[in-house]
Amino acid sequence: MPSSKVRAGPIPKRLIVAIMIFIACVTSFMLRVNMSLNLLAMVKPITNSTAKSVNISTVTINSTEVLLPTNITTPQPKLEIQNFGPRYQWDQGTQGRILGAYFYGFMITSLPAGLMAERYGPKLVVSLSFVVSAIATAATPALAAVGPWYVIGSRAVVGIVAGLVYPGLQNLISRWIPPNERGKVIACISGGSTFGTVITWPMSGILTEQLGWSYAFYLPALIVLLMAVLWVALIENSPDQHSTITLEEKRIIDDSFGNTISKAKSWPPYGKVLTSIPFLALLMLHYGSMWGMSFFITQAPKFMNEVLGFKLANAGFLSSLPYLARMFSGFIFGYIGDVILQREIMSRTTLRKSFCMFSHFLPGAFLVILPFIAQDPLVCVGCIVLCLGFNGSSTITNLVNAQDLAPNFAASLYGFLSFLGTTTGFIAPMLVGYFTAENSTINEWKYIFLITAVIYFVTGLAFVGFGSGQVQKWNDVKPKSKGSTNYAMDCVECSEMKRH
């Protein structure tokens, strides 16, 4: 990543910044997704039934009370609830509220987080998030013994402080990373988030089966606290505040900004933004992608454990595979998109719309197929991997389109997209809770998959019909002057913006 102008010597500080940004996203997502798997070991499981109405009796198997149907004459397999720690009688609605609490909290700080980072600096904002979220996570086992609402509260606190992280990282990038290096660092944000999911579920499954579910909270909390120490020790808000940065690197960073980046901030023209058809189309496209992501983040372990019958450790590992596929495909599709634009094979608008085929339409198609191939669990898992794998192409559709529409206000636009997209994190668990309140079989999950497929299709079609890759007129908030650089040159991808 560092410029070739930096000679051999001390590790460039902006390389350290990029690595810490990656780690920050890993740890943030670690505490975001761990509850999806941990909750399975914390609650008493639902006993599925193939009959519409059966008589239930309580029997004891290996010193454990288990509910078994008594009016079915065929031999029933012995059911044993594994002892991973205390299990609580929380219904599906309560479980959905626990999973959704994080996203309620996340919404609270999504919009003001950018202003907080500008005022207090990303170092303090992100450090605060690490410490508070680690404490709230470590306290979860004790809070669970008191009652489910205390767990809901702790998850909401984790979400509130997590909402500070990504705007803080965006602010850090704007202060530290030269424009011609930001693409690689933005990839660290996407890759770090995905990698956090990939490692957390297998780790939680193994910790739960070997030590008990409480350790699946304690260890991640400890890791996040250690990362907080590293963050405070290695990160400064800007090169000017860093005591050991070389003069050469500081000069490279300062020269890269030149006069193209104005320190004066302007409020986005919200009235024009919210009435812009291309932005509303982007809003729908992003919401559809976020729905799919939130659905699989919160519900994939549950589906693989309760419906497909995988053990918790296996469910955690298999649930991480779709995100591993999404991480690698995101880099691949990003490279393909850059090549297409550099060689002018197609316009930016055509590129964004065409690749909705991969980011939305193909994932929707796989979800339509999935309920009909659920007889083979591994094939079912493969279908989910392909679904999120193709959705990795969102790196050149909804995740970047805000830069196309308004490079001057891309951060504000993305904050608004994230604010609304976060609602999917608590709506999806509520939807699953509604359909699986009585039973959790493929018959119930079929409707959930089909609804998600429809959301993918409808939001993709909306963008294909009304989306754009052109800079919008409301991006130019001030008249051009003779000695100033026009707004298109303020964009990181200025050379590409000129073509439009």
Describe the protein in words.
Helix content is 66%, strand content 2%. It is mainly α. Strands 1-2 form a two-stranded antiparallel ribbon. Helix 12 crosses helix 19 (424-435) and helix 12 (277-306) packs antiparallel against helix 20. It is globular, with a radius of gyration of 24 Å. The protein starts with 12 loop residues before the first helix and ends with a helix.
Number of helices in the DSSP assignment: 21
Series of H and E elements: HEEHHHHHHHHHHHHHHHHHHHH
Cross-sheet strand order for the largest sheet: 1-2
Radius of gyration: 24 Å
The major β-sheet equals: 2 strands, antiparallel
Q: Tell me, what's the shape?
A: globular
Beta-strand proportion: under 5%
Low-confidence stretches: 1-9, 48-79, 479-500
Straight-line N-to-C gap: 28 Å
Helix content: 55-70%
- The average pLDDT is 77
User: What is the number of E strands?
Assistant: 2
List the topology elements.
Blueprint: H1 13-42, E1 56-61, E2 64-69, H2 92-110, H3 113-120, H4 122-138, H5 140-146, H6 148-162, H7 165-176, H8 182-211, H9 215-234, H10 247-257, H11 270-274, H12 277-306, H13 312-342, H14 348-354, H15 356-369, H16 377-391, H17 401-405, H18 410-421, H19 424-435, H20 442-466, H21 494-498
Helix pairs in contact: 1-2, 1-4, 1-7, 1-8, 1-9, 1-12, 2-6, 2-18, 2-19, 3-4, 3-7, 4-6, 4-7, 4-9, 5-6, 8-9, 8-13, 12-13, 12-16, 12-18, 12-19, 12-20, 13-16, 15-16, 15-20
